[in-house]
Amino acid sequence: MKIYLISNNLVLNDITYESEMALDLKRATRPLAIEGEKAAFKLAQKLPVELLYSSTYASALATAKYFSEASGINININQHLDDAKIGSMGRHNIKMLRFMQERNFDYKYPSGESLNETKLRVSKVFGNILKNNRDTAVVTHKRTIMSLLLKYCTTGYNLNERLILSYNDKVILDDSENDIDVLILTVEDGKIIDIDNLEE
Question: Model-level pTM?
Fold first, then answer.
């Protein structure tokens, strides 16, 4: 059985918010860019699956719809797969948050989530996905994937002092800005026996 953890990072940037809106809500409502739609369609044709899960975010659902159409299956929408909450930044910024969280997995802004909290949240639904024994696509977000994989991977830092995750001595997730991140988990008897990234 294969589980594909997918983050489509090609979201629309040309957006103006005319009313006050919390950053987490802005992130949740950002649609895919045209390039993101095309990439999602192409990926869905390449990876036929039997089960499909998505976060509640607009970009994740837009990606999941292509898998739904290509494989003829329903989308299971689960808020436990949503991105890690930023919370109230005050005078800080997202760059500072990422820097601190990559060194302290319990660090968070007020009303936000730490990587460890996100890992616990995602693990609630992921445990059930592992038991299904069917090829599954999980459309979520890079930070969410990183949080979950902290449970299964070795952590380290690259030359830029950014967090990297390795499995069997191979780097499978880092701070590279990819159009789409796809992690492939091979599962036997409900246990992960291999983790790799999809090479485009």
Answer: 0.93
